[in-house]
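Changelog entry

Holo records now carry the ligand SMILES as an explicit input line rather than a separate metadata file. Below, a converted record for copper (II) ion, shown in the new format.
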Amino acid sequence: MNTFKILISTLCLSGTAAIAQTAVKDSVANNDGTVTIQLKTSAVCEMCKETIEKALAFEKGIKSSDLHVESKMLSVVYDPRKTNSIKVKTAVSKSGYDADEWPADMKAYERLHSCCKKDSAH
Ligand SMILES: [Cu+2]
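Structure line, unchanged by the conversion:
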């Protein structure tokens, strides 16, 4: 059982490392030491925008976030000394939305308003 757990966590770690390598491709370093990244989300409406931006406002190290609803693109400004793109994506996922290759956290997704679910009929 323990061996199994170690194997699983090793797999998780290597998966995270692979994502970390691809995560920086859309990042821009700002003059004030912050970093701006662009993420593709599964947001569909203004309510989604509010949900995501509010969730990120509580995250440590995130300075600001802005979701463009039509393109589903979220831009996030964060302090790289306090957080990183993986944590940003995790926070978006935990609010119920996809963040690039990171799928939405299922429990959070289930709690979304029905019109905010990516596979709902519009
Ligand atoms: Cu919505």
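Spot-checked after migration. The mean pLDDT is 86. Residues 93 and 105 are 5 Å apart (CA to CA).
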